[in-house]
Design brief:
It is a single chain. The chain is of the alpha+beta class. It has two domains: about 20-165, Glutaredoxin (3-Layer(aba) Sandwich); about 175-325, Jelly Rolls (Sandwich). The protein contains four helices and 21 strands. It has helices spanning about 50-65, 85-95, 110-115, 140-155, and strands spanning about 20-25, 40-45, 70-75, 100-105, 120-125, 130-135, 165, 175-180, 200-205, 215-220, 225-230, 235-240, 245-255, 255-265, 265, 280, 285-290, 295-300, 305-310, 315-325, 335. The strands form three sheets. Strands 8, 9, 10, 11, 12, 13, 14, 15, 16, 17, 18, 19 and 20 form a 13-stranded antiparallel sheet that branches. Strands 1-4-3-2-5-6 form a six-stranded mixed sheet, covered by helices on one side. Helix 1 links the parallel strand 2 and strand 3 (about 70-75). It is elongated, with a radius of gyration of 22 Å. The N and C termini lie close together (about 5 Å).
C-alpha cells in the first residue's frame, strides 16, 4: 500500500463562515461546528456548463467519501437574476440527483469572502478549520482527489481509501471549454459597432468571424448580462463560430417561440444536430425556447471550422451566453490506480 504524500502546503487562512440566503437539502450548517472534519465547498452555478460537468464528479465524491467523514457543501452563486429563484435551483438539484447540502449565495457574499476567482471552483477545508486548497480548474480532478485523500488521512482516517481515479487531466488542451458572455458587462461581441448599453442598436454581419467572439445582425439591445432581440421576425441573428467544439447556448424568451439554426448558410447535417435540435420535413432545424435554459445545439468535428447562426422567430428572445467545449478523446478515458 502506497503512502499519500503531502503535495500542497496547508494554508493558515481561517475558512469564512457560510452566511447564505437559504439552504437546500439541509438545515443551515456551520463550519465552526464542523471543525475536526474535512469539508469540501463546491462553488457553482447551474447556468455554467462547466459547473454541471463538475457537479457529476462532486456527486460521485460525496457518495464515495461521505461515509469516510467528508462533509460536502455546494455554494450556488448565480450568474443571472433568474438563477436566483429557489424553484429553479431546486429543479436542477432534483434533475441532477444532488443530495448534499447547498447554500444559495445570491449576492455572492460567500464567494467574495473566499475570493473565488472563477466558477466553478472547489475549496478544501482541513480539520483545523483552515483553507487547505482552492482549485478553479476543470482539469484538476486528480489533484483535488489526491488532496482530499491526504486530508482524510491527516484527520485520523486509517481505513482503506478508494482507488484514485485518473480523469484525463491532460495539459495538451484536450477537453477544452470556453464561455462567451453576451451582455455588455463582460461580453464578447465582435461587431465593430460595439455595444450600445440598454439601447436598441442595428448591427451588420461582418461575415468574418474571429474565435472567442460572437457576432450580431439586425436590431438588438445589449443588457448588462444579456443580448435581447428587438427586431422583426426571422430577420436578425447571432453567429458563433466553432473550431471543432460543441456549442450550447443559454436562451430565454418572453413567450414560447423558436430559434432556427443554420450552419455555414445551410441546413444542419444530422451529425451536427445535438439533443435539443428538431428537424422538420423540409430539413429546417430549430430549437423551441421558453424559460431561460441551456440548449445543446451543435456537435463539432475535430479541426473543422463552422459558423453557426441562431435566428429568432420573433422579438423578445434573449441570449445570455454561448458555451463551447470539446470532450477528451478515447485516449483520455478514466483509469483507476491504487494510491493508498
Amino acid at each position: 500500500m502506497k503512502t499519500l504524500r503531502q503535495t500542497y502546503q496547508p494554508q493558515s487562512v481561517r475558512a469564512p463562515e457560510l452566511y447564505g440566503d437559504r439552504w437546500f437539502n439541509s438545515e443551515p450548517l456551520s463550519l465552526r461546528a464542523a471543525e475536526g472534519e474535512i469539508v469540501l465547498l463546491f462553488f457553482w452555478s447551474y447556468t455554467s456548463p462547466g459547473s454541471l460537468r463538475m457537479l457529476q464528479v462532486i456527486n460521485e465524491w460525496y457518495e464515495t467519501y461521505a461515509p469516510l467523514g467528508l462533509i460536502c457543501i455546494g455554494v450556488h452563486a448565480p450568474e443571472f437574476p433568474f438563477a436566483r429563484l429557489a424553484k429553479n435551483v431546486e429543479e436542477v438539484l432534483r434533475e441532477k440527483k444532488v443530495s448534499f447540502p447547498v447554500v444559495a449565495d445570491n449576492d455572492r457574499v460567500i464567494t467574495e469572502a473566499y475570493r473565488i476567482p472563477d466558477i466553478p471552483s472547489v475549496v478544501l477545508v482541513g480539520s483545523n478549520g483552515n483553507i487547505y486548497d482552492i482549485v478553479a480548474s476543470l482539469s484538476s480532478f486528480t489533484r483535488l482527489e489526491r488532496s482530499l485523500q491526504y486530508l482524510l488521512r491527516q484527520s485520523g482516517f486509517f481505513g482503506e481509501l478508494p482507488p484514485l481515479r485518473s480523469y484525463g487531466d491532460a495539459p495538451d488542451g484536450r477537453g477544452r471549454s470556453m464561455e462567451l458572455m453576451t451582455g455588455y458587462l463582460h461580453g464578447s461581441l465582435g461587431n465593430t459597432e460595439g455595444y450600445s448599453p440598454e439601447l436598441p442598436a442595428e448591427y451588420r454581419d461582418p461575415r468574418f468571424y474571429v474565435a472567442g467572439k460572437f457576432y450580431a445582425h439586425g436590431i438588438w439591445r445589449a443588457e448588462r448580462n444579456a443580448f435581447h432581440y428587438d427586431g422583426p421576425p426571422n430577420e436578425g441573428y447571432l453567429v458563433c463560430s466553432s473550431s471543432g467544439e460543441d456549442i450550447d447556448v443559454l436562451i430565454g424568451s418572453e413567450q414560447r417561440t423558436s430559434v432556427s439554426i443554420r450552419v455555414d448558410e445551410a441546413s444542419m447535417l444530422l451529425e451536427q444536430m445535438r439533443t435539443d435540435v428538431k428537424r422538420d420535413a423540409k430539413g429546417n432545424s430549430s430549437i423551441a425556447v421558453g424559460d431561460p435554459q441551456f440548449y445543446a445545439v451543435f456537435r463539432g468535428l475535430q479541426h473543422q471550422q463552422h459558423a453557426v447562426k441562431f435566428i429568432p422567430a420573433q422579438s423578445g428572445v434573449t441570449f445570455y451566453k454561448f458555451s463551447l467545449h470539446s470532450e477528451p478523446t478515447d485516449d483520455d478515458a478514466p483509469a483507476s490506480v491504487r494510491n493508498n
